[in-house]
Amino acid sequence: MKLERVELLHVSIPLITPFRTSFGTMTKKDTFLLHAVTDEAEGWAEFAADPQPLYCSEFVAGAEIVIRDFLLPRITALPELTTATVTPALTSVKGHELAKAALETALLDAELRAYGMPLAAYLGSIRDRVPAGVSVGIKNSVPELLDDIERYLAEGYIRIKLKVEPGWDVEPVRAVRERFGYELPLQVDANTAYTLADAQHLRRLDDFGLLLIEEPLEENNLRAHAELQKLLATPVCLDESIHSARDAASAIALDACRVVNVKPARVGGYLEARRVHDVVTAHGLPVWCGGMLETGIGRAPNLALAALPGFTLPGDTSASNRYFAEDITEPFVLQDGHLSVPSAPGIGVDPLPDALAHFTIGTRELHAIRK
Ligand code: OSB
Ligand code: MG
Q1: Whether residue 94 lies in the annotated active site
Q2: Which domains does the chain have, with CATH numbers?
């Protein structure tokens, strides 16, 4: 495969409702797509992070520079361009997993399209649809939260995740249990909002039969998560702290978590995400697929991953209309609480030209081979 050009499309898409977490409130998906054109096929990918480094250290403007100045030059120097050669070529650049994931995914998409192979088949996925959960942001009041959850359950979502922070934790969880019962698969996500000093408070969540508590403490603080796990009956799940399969192995060895949220972007792409799945599954622990409010371009490959056998818990991969009035691809629709895994080659979806034109606020040519 020969890389002819890589185009960056900066897109901005309004969210249907603001999404509030312990680290901030999002009102739109503001990021970029990568469009890789090779002599054999074209590929697409979405950068998963936000304009500000609040969820993770990477951010939109920084990732553009990293890809343009440090990642792409290493790719264009390769004698043979395949996904197998791309990933090792990028390892000398420290960190920047989300930027690497965007570039790797665009090239993987092009390569798989050239082979006519769907990403799900390439990864070894076994399902044609995956159960959908929904991540519910922090609300102004408990009644507002209960109304939102009622609507999501009526739509068919089969698992609810509540975003929590100090001051919005035990009370909303209790209210959800009282209203919807103990059978509802329910979990919480703190996005690093607590410290080990909050352990006794967090223990109160043990009364509510949660599936897991996600990233309660500081990012990368495996020791503190292990201390917390000793005090909690609720399984600790790590998100922000897991950047690789090696991190997952360390966290499990320390008993810092008993569940892992796999976000392909956070671990550098789908190949490493597959390895995270393999390591965690080999330890007999469940994994599930997280999300970052992706457009259809990011959602499609996440669904392919979530169809691997070890993904035994429902993920955060919700339908397009949970996020957007209009998506950039054909919308993903909830059917009987599930989303279909794309079956066309590569990531299996393309941007719709009109939607793409409508939501694109800038384009940059990152690399063009002069012919
Ligand atoms: O921590 O899982 C998270 C969204 C943006 C950034 C981080 C997270 C989230 C979510 C929503 O919880 C997941 C989704 O619906 O895409
Ligand atoms: Mg999370």
Answers
A1: no
A2: 3-116+352-368 (3.30.390.10), 121-340 (3.20.20.120)
